[in-house]
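Lecture notes, unit on protein representations.

Consider one protein chain, 254 amino acids long.
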Amino acid sequence: MLLCAVPSAPLRIRPRRRPVRRRIAVDGRDAAAPRLAAMRTRVLVVDNYDSFVFNLVQYLGQLDVDCVVRRNDELTVDEALGYDVAGILLSPGPGTPARAGICVPLVRAAAGRVPLFGVCLGHQAIGEAYGATVVRAPELLHGKTSEVHHDGLGVLAGLPDPFTATRYHSLTVDEATLPPEIEVTGRTASGVVMAMRHRELPIDGVQFHPESVLTQGGHRMLANWLATCGQPAALDLAPRLAEQVEQRRLAAIG
């Protein structure tokens, strides 16, 4: 099987057993409860059965955001759109976009209604939803880093050019098959698509893993997306968090 991320045992997220199914947000609150004025911004994270999901959720929590996490096959598109959330993040995961549950139809249905951000498999799902072809990557990279050259648009605003990103994938979006409304914003030195965005709608995707300690500026990328979700305060929190990760990254590479 072609993989977008390292296979792992599924993380089980069990709802409490009640007559009406309740979903638990990351901070422990009932995700179905009425929102209070003091409640933080919430986003829906569609979990594509990946071990990296809760690293992303942790980053989002550090940026003062609550997450509702649902597996890609345990809800419908209508149910996903029914959540009172400011944005939807499509996680990494194994396999292909066609096997990623509701991801591809959700992108089509949510476009223009709520900001979307796809990571790795989620990024590929955005490409497929817009008619692009997902093909075998020129090289298989799992846990390897590459420099990403970019134009500073969308979620990549404010990042150094190039920056280092961690990759776990054997598939990639074929740039030649992307429609005009989707622009590539980041590539490797060899031309592999690493980031793209919709020219008019708040839809971004990255092929690499912003939540990896070896990726530079992961908090800033998520904060850029959260700003489009109505959470600009995340941009104030990101620099300190990014610096902490950078210190760990430098220590890791020696």
